[in-house]
Amino acid sequence: MDDYDFNKIGMELKRLRTEQSYTQEQIAADLGCTVSFVSNIENNRTKLNLRVLCYYAKLCNVTIDSILKAGLTNESQENISKERDNELLNTVHQFSPEQQDKIIKTLKYVYELS
């Protein structure tokens, strides 16, 4: 869990809540807890639990993963990026040079479309 900055996760929960126009009072009523508990979660004064994390994800129609990604430390994000780069290179190297050229052209085309 050292890979996560819970201040950032709390800020993400608050952002998601306000983006959906929910109040802390509404969240507290749904969770059966106090408004101060919700505030403490969003401000990293109380440990985040799985129940709350799942609730926010479902309420805001996002994945748990997307909430947690907001809290990844820079070092963790760099490690994930390096792992992804290595996986991509290892996969591409399994193809012939001609196939690799086609893959590169296809990726460039898809990138231009986005």
Describe this structure in words.
With 114 residues, this protein is mainly alpha-helical. The chain has 7 helices and no strands. It has helices at residues 6-19, 24-31, 35-42, 50-59, 64-69, 74-92, 97-113. Helix 2 crosses helix 3. The longest helix has 19 residues, at 74-92. It is elongated. It starts with 5 loop residues before the first helix and ends with a helix. The model has no long low-confidence stretch (mean pLDDT 89).
Query: What oligomerization state is this entry in?
Result: single chain
Would you identify the regions where 5 or more consecutive residues have pLDDT less than 50? none
Distance from N terminus to C terminus (CA atoms, Å) equals 34 Å
Q: What overall geometry do the principal axes of the alpha carbons give? A: elongated
Mean pLDDT: 89
Q: How many whole angstroms does the radius of gyration measure?
A: 20 Å
Helix share bin: over 70%
User: How do the SSEs run, as a string of H and E?
Assistant: HHHHHHH
Number of strands: 0
The largest β sheet comes out as: none
Provide the β-strand percentage band: under 5%
Structural class: mainly alpha
Structure annotation, total helices = 7
